[in-house]
Amino acid sequence: MYEISQDLSLDKKLEILSDAAKYDVACTSSGSDRRGQKGMLGNSCAAGICHSFAADGRCISLLKILMTNHCVYDCKYCKNRRSNDIERATFTPREICTLTTEFYKRNYIEGLFLSSGVINSPDYTMEKMCETLRLLRTEYRFNGYIHIKAIPGASSELINSAGLLADRISINMELPTEESLSLLAPNKSVKNIVTPMNSISTAIASHRLAIGKDARMERAVINDRLSHTIFSGNDRAKNIGTAGSKGIEEAVNSALLSNNVNRGGSFLPADPKDKSLRRPFAPAGQSTQMIIGASEESDYDIMSTAQLLYKGFDLKRVFYSAYIPLNDDSALPSLDTPVPLLREHRLYQADFLLRYYGFGISELLSDDKPNFDTRIDPKCEWALRHLGDFPVEVNKASYDQLIRVPGIGPTSIKRIMSARRYGHVNFMMLKKMGVVLKRAQFFITCDGHMMGNIPIEEQFILNRLTDADRKTSYQIQNPDNSVQMNLFNDFGLSAGSA
What tens digit of pLDDT does each residue of 353-380 get? Predict the structure, then answer.
């Protein structure tokens, strides 16, 4: 059995394991690059620090690390797979606690993101992660934000313990179909992933009901397509249908129908004497991650699986990670394959349409059109296919009509509805309300008039939209790596030769 012992220094371990964690996408980067300055506290460029955002908009710095990059699995897409010859390291639970508390005291971070490779077995790894969290919460009295990546295949008792100690818990779906998972991650199975997802979802719902909240996580828009009954596994399974992987659909239905979990609240702590352990179960919800571009699934397959997981397990978020070619393998794209960042961007936009705008995946994509047009965002693409529903009169349209207009979101609609009670809304007012008129102008009227002489014609609008979106698309595909100009470089000289 592998024992957690290393001769490496703590700094060296931090360097190795923070770098290894960068492929785990489960927090939103702010893009900040502020370095430490004399006389100031905080450093957003230190090893392993990333950013997440709270519900009230606050930016939270997280220490993002793996407990270990040793792994008994040999997933073909993973840098830390067993067959790769890379430098390995392992943190002890106390080392992680020391790093977290010392970084917090120095105002570098406000929370911890903890993931891990699999050492010995899923249960052994999960036990060490739970030990780390228990030490942080009790002995080190750390009350900050913690996000933990649970290990598929670990026992339900260990995963439930992690949920009671962490703020958010997630299990990576990894790939959108069972076929791809079998090909690229032969040591993992769909059942071992969705079964704990179901347990976590049920535990979150049970706790929310126990404290008098709605069983579902909050959403800006709860659409009938995504609604489900928490305690009726049979009803939930009947309502789930998708065009995605049949294997994943069957596994999700099986998890929901099994009903093996005690839904009466057995996951809640039994009022321990130590008040620091009286915590809600994963109050920030559950999330997952799928890798995009490592296998040949279409956008339709990916988003169908995402919709299935949202329906079945009330996930807070599905993250899409553009595949970065790291390993030379015949089952993977070649090493010179571009990272599909623009595709990832479009999938995130479509994900927002599913969660907050009331769209279903069958409205956005189909077997005949399985991929998004990367030139325009998915909402514009849908609108161009349904020009018969436009233009929409802003002063008379319902919420359901306005939410489907490109460039208009839930916050803007609330402002429009409020302003309509006192008078008519015009284009100048819409701009001040936050409506993106570059897109919305082609699909709306104010008092029967459009913003200019615009023909309701698909090709005309498409040409205008792609022009407006060209700069954004270019920036995503070609990140700005420019540097400050140097006088000596301009003359072909170096500073030393001058």
Answer: 999 899 999 999 999 999 999 999 999 9
pLDDT in tens, 239-277: 444 455 677 888 887 777 764 444 433 444 444 454 544
Instruction: Determine contact, residues 390/383, Cβ cutoff 8 Å.
Output: yes
pLDDT band at 390 (very low <50, low <70, confident <90, very high): very high
340 pLDDT more than 50 = yes
Instruction: Give me 62's structure tokens.
Output: 């997280």
Domain spans in the chain, listed from the N-terminal domain onward: 1-149, 186-326+338-368, 373-477
Q: Are 435 and 412 in contact (CB under 8 A)?
A: yes
| The pair of three-digit structure tokens given for residue 75, joined into one six-digit string | 């997933």
Give residues with Cβ within 8 angstroms of 136, minimum separation 6: 96, 97, 100, 101, 112, 142, 146, 165
Q: Would you say 350 and 299 are in contact if contact means Cβ atoms under 8 Å apart?
A: yes
Distance (Å) of CA 70 to CA 3, 79, 121, 193: 11, 11, 11, 20
CA distance 157 to 299: 35
Nearest to 268 by CA among 277, 280, 276: 280
Tokens of 292: 């995009």
CA distance 473 to 375: 7
Task: For residue 214, give the amino acid letter.
Answer: D
Contact yes or no for 277/138 (Cβ under 8 A): yes
- DSSP code for 292: E
Number of H helices, E strands in the chain: 18, 9
Q: Say if residues 40 and 34 touch (Cβ distance below 8 Å).
A: no
Q: What is the DSSP letter of 175?
A: S
DSSP label at residue 334: -
Helix (H, G, I), strand (E, B) or coil at 210: helix
